Amino acid sequence: MKKAVFMSENKAAIPNAYAESLRAEMAEVFDFLPGVYTLKDASEDRAALADVEVIFSTWGMPKLDEEQIRTILPNLKAVFYGAGSVQYFARPYMACGVEIFSAWAANAVPVAEVTVAEIILANKGYYQRMQYEDGAWTNHNMNNAPLGNYNTNVGIIGAGMIGKLVIKMLAPYKLNVYVFDPFLPKAVADELGVTLVDDLPTLFETCHVISNHLANNPQTVGMIDKSCFDRMMPSAVFINTGRGAQVVEDDMIAALKECPERVALLDVTMPEPPIAGSEMYKMRNIILTPHLAGSIGLEVQRMGEYMFEESRRWLAGEETKWHVTEKMLETMA
Q: How far apart are CA 297 and CA 301, in angstroms?
C-alpha cells in the first residue's frame, strides 16, 4: 500500500471534504499517517513524511516551494486536491514532477446550479421586482417588461468546466445561448448548440443575462469594464460567480446608476467582501452574496469522493479524469 497523508492548514476542512465513511474506505487502499498535517507539522516531522507518496487535501492545502517539497516530501508522486482551483499551490509541485489532480469538476456542479437558478429568475424580472414596500411591489411597473424564459438571449463569458456545465444545464430551456471564449473551437460551440461572439461588448449588447465564468489569471483582470457595462440592455442582469478581479467595479457601478433597472448579482468581488462604505452595499440593484455558489455543507463531500475515485484510477494505471497540467493552468479558473 502506498503511504499517504491528509494535509491542510485548516484541519477541520479534511473531515468536511472526506466523510468518516469515505476515510475508512480510503484506509483500505492507502496506508495513512494519523491525523491531518499542516505545513508546521510537516516541517517538524520530516521522518514520518519521507516515504509519503500521496497527499489528499482540500481548501487550505499548504503552499510549499520546490526546496521544501524536495526535502520534506522527497517521494511524493501525487496530490489529490478535494476542492477547486489549484492555481495558488500547484506549480512548485509540478516542477518537482508531482502529478496534480483536482476536484474542480465536482466544485463546478453547485456553481453551475446556482448560476442556472439565477439566470432563470433573472429572465422573469425577479431581481427588479423582489422587494415589497408600503403595500406595493417596488419596480412593479418596470419600463422594460421581463422577457421570460423563451427565446431569450443568455450570454456566457468563458466556456471552461463551469461555463460548459451551465450551457448543458440550460439545454432543456428554450433559450438562445451566446458565448465569448477565444479558446472555444467553433466545432465545440456547434456541438454545445451555442453561438460564438467575437468580443465582450457585443455579448453585453446582445444578451438579457450575462454570466461570468472566465479563467482566473492575470490576462483576465479588469477584462469586464466600461465598454461592456455601458452596452448592457435596460433591465439586463450581470451575474458573477467567477472572480471579482475580472470586473472593473467602478464601471459597473456607474452603469447601474445610469440605468437602475439593470442588476448585478455578485457572489464574488474585489476585495471580498467589498471595503467598508462601498457603494455596492447601498445600491438596490446590486445583490451581494458571500461566495456561496461553490460547494457548501454536504456538497463538499462530493469533492472528496471525486478525488478518491480518481486516486483508484491512478493506482490502477487507468486513464484519469481530473489530471491538471501546466498548460491547463493558463486557462483554468
A: 8
pTM of structure: 0.81
Phi, psi (5° rounding) for residue 288?
-100, 135
Distances (CA, A) of 222 to 12, 125, 285: 35, 28, 21
Question: Cα(156)–Cα(164) distance, rounded to whole angstroms?
Answer: 9
> 172 with 152: CB under 8 angstroms?
no
DSSP lists the bridge partners of residue 157 as: 180, 212
Tell me which residue has cell 490576462: 219
**Axis crossing angle, helix 104-123 with helix 300-315, rounded to the nearest 10:** 140
Cα(313)–Cα(117) distance, rounded to whole angstroms?
A: 34
Local confidence pLDDT in tens for the 333 residues of the chain: 999 999 999 999 999 999 999 999 999 999 999 999 999 999 999 999 999 999 999 999 999 999 999 999 999 999 999 998 899 999 999 999 999 999 988 988 999 999 999 999 999 999 988 765 555 555 554 666 778 999 999 999 999 989 999 999 999 999 999 999 999 999 999 999 999 999 999 999 999 999 999 988 888 999 999 999 999 999 999 999 999 999 999 999 999 999 999 999 999 999 999 999 999 999 999 999 999 998 899 999 999 999 999 999 999 999 999 999 998 887 666
CA atoms within 13 A on the CB side of 101: 27
Report the interhelical angle of 161-170 vs 104-123 (nearest 10°): 50
**Omega within 30 of 0 (cis) for the link into 274:** no
C-alpha cell at 206: 446582445
